[in-house]
Known about the structure:
Helices cover 15% and strands 38% of the residues. It has helices spanning 3-22, 24-27, 74-77, 235-244; strands spanning 31-37, 45-51, 65-69, 88-93, 102-109, 121-122, 126-137, 141-148, 154-161, 165-173, 192-200, 209-221. Strands 1, 3, 4, 7, 10 and 12 form a six-stranded antiparallel beta sheet that branches. The chain is globular and about 60 Å long.
Amino acid sequence: MKHGGFKAACLVISTCIAVLSVHADEKTVNLESRVLESFDGESPYVWEVVASKFATKNDEDTFPKVSYIPAWPAALHGSNKEGKDLKTLGVWGRFDRKGYNWIDVFPMAKDAAEGDEPTEIPIPGRVRGLDLWVWGSNFNYYLEVYLRDFKGVVHIIQLGDLNFEGWRNLRINVPDNIPRSQRTLPKMQALSVVKFRIWTRPTERVDNFQVYFDQIKVLTDTFESLFDGDELADTERVQELWSSGSSK
């Protein structure tokens, strides 16, 4: 091989190594399973509900209702109830007419004052999938989850139909077109859970129904490359440093 050809080959190899280094974070993964909410009173959130305009409201009752119920899927926690202080989130709905009615189920901060805006649950890492346990009573309804990306865009993903009996684990893969990272530091940009929405279909009765939720969980990639000065790309650490720093 001529001297010029050898130099060209070395240049190509060096370029390939540089490209692989730039994209290393996208190819190295550290998948972890994280529980975002168990509904057992250990989280900083309380859950509330609001519904579309035909929700039943009269002198006797107002719907929808929400409550923490001492029940759970046996597949998750077993069927023995002795000594267990476990809860699920129950939603009780009723509408005055059929149609595409909806109920939103959303988190609030436990210390929220009256009139405060709902909060959102941050998802650590680059989330790959989300699942939760849902109890259905075979109504022809379906469930959606709303996720917000770091640009403020809300993405709606259908979790599945609710026309089944008893507990079922509903799972979705988070689409790749939802951004979870950026070119500049900090690269990793988390999504957040905004709310869940129960939809009724126009052909199904809506005069009385319950839906129960348990354990919202995610599968997420928490890998982040280390580099000299990586703490200055940590948003929380930066807030601490600037709060304790001097302005002079």
